[in-house]
Amino acid sequence: MKIMVVDDDPDMLAVTGFALQQAGYLVVRANSYGSALGTFREERPDGAVLDINLPGGSGFDLCAALRRESDLPILMLTVRGDEADLVRALELGADDYLTKPFSPRTLLARIKALLRRARAEDSRPSAAGELELVLETLTLRIAGREVKLTPLEARLLHLLIASAGQPVATDRILVHVWGHRGGGDRQLLKQLVHRFRQKIGDDPENPRWLETVPNVGYRVRA
After folding, report:
1. Pairwise CA distance, residues 95 & 131, whole Å
2. Engineering a disulfide at 30: which of 39, 75, 133, 147 sits with its beta carbon 3.0 to 4.6 angstroms away?
3. Considering only the top CATH level, what class is 2-120?
């Protein structure tokens, strides 16, 4: 498996690349927006780790550009831990978000989980009520219209549709969507659900499709 690591800090680029190489990944490196885009198009990696602060264009810009061309798993790795940055990363299609400093073990666990989720994606349509999800195209058909989803939104909905009518626990959702569970990731999930509801026009106070089940998790109405 080939991972592209993008960071303008030579030391961080070396450390991150070394950790991935020690785990058996083939690593390609870039230190700017332009070199990363060129490397991506030439190497076609299986996943990407992106810093946000890059010369020539931000990691957000790069994430959006990669998402327009590919569904590869994208992990944002940055010193910036603001909620606004987290939300923006999710909106642009990032799959996970890890702040510096980080442990190599945590980084590897996140990368392995993202790649495992990508390999496990099922291209068959799944449906519940007015919702029909086509994972192959990341498309939701809902009430006579089509909505383009991010990979995270598609994985969330796939799990909920599979258990339509039944509440799905938060920890189970975290494992299915990100491959791990943790207190900090609950905020990621809340933001993901919030953005998804906005996208499909679902009122959280009077939900038509996606309900919050207090102290449990979430449920798609059958």
Report:
1. 22
2. 39
3. alpha beta
